[in-house]
Amino acid sequence: GAVVSQHPSRVICKSGTSVKIECRSLDFQATTMFWYRQFPKKSLMLMATSNEGSKATYEQGVEKDKFLINHASLTLSTLTVTSAHPEDSSFYICSAKGGWNTEAFFGQGTRLTVV
Amino acid sequence: AQRVTQPEKLLSVFKGAPVELKCNYSYSGSPELFWYVQYSRQRLQLLLRHISRESIKGFTADLNKGETSFHLKKPFAQEEDSAMYYCAPAPQGGSEKLVFGKGTKLTVNP
To answer: Which residue has the higher pLDDT, B54 or B76?
Structure first.
């Protein structure tokens, strides 16, 4: 199957700083990327959907100014958590799909800890 | 709007027993449904999709339009089947979201 690489896998940052998470499709063109947040023992909560070259579509309750998503190319999307606070600590997961396939491929996730 | 419901948060069976993970959907148009699986410390991955009608790792899932269900079944569970299982409708044009059900944690006991 296709490969999606997410980086970093773990990050610890100080409260008030910003953190950028990258999601790359390594062997296919990702026309659509999804960003999720997973709380402990909970399901994946869709945060936003982004199409290459377009603004991301955020789910209700997700602050777009806090969680900046950029999908500037067909192989890279980034999620920037701005002015991070301890309550932003979570597991963030990206997934990507190409226009030719309805299957989505997932990154390994990023564990963000804000101290 | 596409929506799936997984009524069981936890499911525990013994090795060799049959297992069924339930998924019900509400859908407009023709549904395309997936089961994704997340093993411990691994990334989420596709298990099977209904249009392929495959059996993957002994699992099958039949789309029942009358009952609007897409239950995942395996006749003889194995310990390595222990994982989180998520049902999801495929993102489609005009509604590109990929939204998962709440998931069912399957534990297969020895």
So the answer is: B76
| Average pLDDT score over chain B | 89
HEC string of chain A equals: CCCEEEECCEEEECCCCCEEEEEEECCCCCCEEEEEEECCCCCEEEEEEEECCCCCEECCCCCCCCEEEEEEECCEEEEEECCCCHHHCEEEEEEEECCCCCCCEECCCEEEEEC
Tens digit of each residue's pLDDT (9 = 90 or more) over B12-40: 999 999 999 999 988 777 778 899 999 99
Q: Do B86 and A34 touch (CB under 8 A)?
A: no
Q: What are the chain A neighbours of B52 within 8 Å (beta carbons)?
A: none
Residues 6 or more apart in contact with residue A63 via CB below 8 angstroms: none
Q: CA–CA distance from A28 to each of A7, A74, A76, A113, B107 (Å)? A: 18, 8, 11, 31, 34
- Asked whether the beta carbons of residue B103 and residue A32 sit closer than 8 angstroms, the reply is no
Q: How confident is the model at residue B92 (pLDDT cuts 50, 70, 90)?
A: low
| Omega cis (within 30) before A8 | yes
User: Is B91 close to A106, i.e. CB distance below 8 A?
Assistant: no
Distance CA B1, CA A101 (A): 21
Choose the mutation target among A44, A49, A93 for the interface with B, i.e. most B CBs under 10 Å: A44
